[in-house]
Amino acid sequence: MTGNLKGCEPVTAIEHRKGGWRNLGVSPERAFAAVVALSIALRLVALVLGAREPLVSDSTDYREMAALLASGARFLPYWPPGLPLYLAPFLAAGFGDAVLRAAMLLWWLLFCWGTWRLVVDLGVKRIGWLVLLVFAIAPTEIHFSMESMTQMPAAALLLIAASAALRCARGAGWGEALLLGVSLGYLSLVRPSVLPLLVVIPALVFLRRRRLAGPIAAMLIGGAMIFGWMARVHQLSGVWTVNTSNGVNLYYGNNPWTPMYRTWYFGSHAKPGSEEILEFPEYAEIMERVSALPRAKRSAEYQRLAVSYVTHAPGAFVLRTLNRVRCFWGFDTFTAANLRSVPGWMHRLFVPVLALDALCFLAIVGFAVYWLACAPGVFWLQWDTWLLGGTVVLYSLPYWVTMSHPTYHFPVMAPLALLGVKAREASAASLRAPRWHGWLGVTALGLIQVEWMFYLAKG
Questions:
Q1: Is the separation of the CB atoms in 223 and 217 below 8 Å?
Q2: For 410-431, how does the pLDDT look when each residue is reduced to its tens digit (9 = 90+)?
Q3: What are the C-alpha distances in Å from 343 to residues 97, 293, 338?
Q4: pLDDT for 217-230, tens place per residue?
Q5: One-letter-per-residue 3-state SS of 243-259
Q6: Can you tell me the distance from the alpha carbon of 114 to that of 135, in angstroms, rounded to the nearest whole number?
Q7: Bigger pLDDT: 21 vs 223
Q8: How far apart are CA 121 and CA 298, in angstroms?
Q9: d(Cα 327, Cα 434) in Å, to the nearest integer?
Q10: Global pTM exceeds 0.85
Q11: Are 414 and 363 in contact (CB under 8 A)?
Q12: Which of 95, 213, 184, 200 has the alpha carbon at shortest distance from 148?
């Protein structure tokens, strides 16, 4: 058991099979590079086609915050600062939306780099290019690569952090500890809900290596980045905080009027001043009352209201949470939904884009679910499994208790896929791995998609 927990480099019968890409004269490195080149070409075409289209969803809000940062205006941040800090220099230089979109390609390149590092660390270069290929052609992933939203930065930073943690656990030097701290620190600024990872991942490295210096340095570096931003917020607003959206997000998903399945509803609908909110007069009254409070006190009041409701209705919270977990694993609809509202010929792409996104999602998650369900017990004792599995769960957990939607699952898709690859190799090396477990898992995933499509059809 101790040997497994030390996370040695996996060596299985699969690695010794004859044939494969090397017999065709193509190395895994070249195959991976070819997929990266294809992905860049697809994204450049998408940039040209969407050059005149306005930013969508939360992109406009992040651009607005970036503009405030660029101007030096005093304000209390509602949105997380990671992405606006990245975009602010482009706005300060006078660039428009087209450049902001092009600038997001850097995060896709970092995603590719993080994926490559992780497949090397896990010893699965032979199949790593196939994992990246699915992400390269999936419409929603192409969209996230050119829209100023947090999904792609979060995904890239999560991969880099996982890779740096693996290397630190295997005795890498201070460069990897620095990379671990910077990636976790910036990830916490992009998505503050994942702040626990800044402690948990270095703690896992310590448990593997039994040396304090590297993990402590990583936590201090990440913590310094967060504190530095909080000090800047204090200069701008007089308040010590990272951002103020967490309390209201908790309330959106946990109030008496939150739908049992569509827990994201109040996060995107029934906003103050809209006609939809008139259908919820008591909810509208509460929103109006809290909005009358000073900005610095609103988040705490929303959090108090949410906690009070959960305390008095624990059964509804549990049921919503179970629904949130299933909804989180629905297939992607973000890009298709946006295409449906675009006039002209692009509107006709709705059905094929939706179908391709569903197929790409099932190719990744279905593969991972099947092999994770088949994996032998020894697989679950390996340190690498604990790291990747814990990262997926801890990143997802905030969405499972607030408001959930499939658009939030993208950052954990690549770690989950590589965990599935690792499980496949462990299953192939075990003669006892029952395959019916895998088909049971895939069936459960399929039922989740049926439920998701039912609610999609209901609008």
A1: no
A2: 999 999 999 999 999 888 776 6
A3: 20, 41, 11
A4: 999 999 999 999 99
A5: CCCHHHHHHHHCCCCCC
A6: 13
A7: 223
A8: 44
A9: 28
A10: yes
A11: no
A12: 95
- Rounded to whole angstroms, the Cα distance separating 372 from 325 reads 17
Round the CA-based radius of gyration of the chain to a whole number and report it.
Answer: 22
Residue 203 token pair: 């703690």
How many whole angstroms separate alpha carbon 371 and alpha carbon 438? 6
Question: Rounded to an integer, what distance in angstroms lies between the CA atom of residue 456 and that of residue 459?
Answer: 5
How far is it, in rounded angstroms, from Cα 216 to Cα 177? 9
Q: Which amino acid is at 379?
A: F
Q: Which tokens is 210 given?
A: 């039994």
**N-to-C CA span, the chain:** 50
Q: CA–CA distance from 355 to each of 53, 133, 335, 456 (Å)?
A: 23, 17, 11, 14
Structure tokens at 341: 């509202």
DSSP state of 8: P
Is residue 222 classed exposed, middle or buried when 0-12, 13-18 and 19+ CB atoms within 10 A define those classes?
A: buried
What integer is the mean pLDDT of 369-381?
Answer: 92
Give the pair of three-digit tokens for residue 155: 């995904």
How much is the average pLDDT of 17-22?
44
Entry field: residues in the chain: 459
Distance (Å, whole) CA 407 – CA 327: 10
Query: Rounded mean pLDDT of the chain?
Result: 90
Question: Distance from CA of residue 50 to its chain's centroid?
Answer: 24
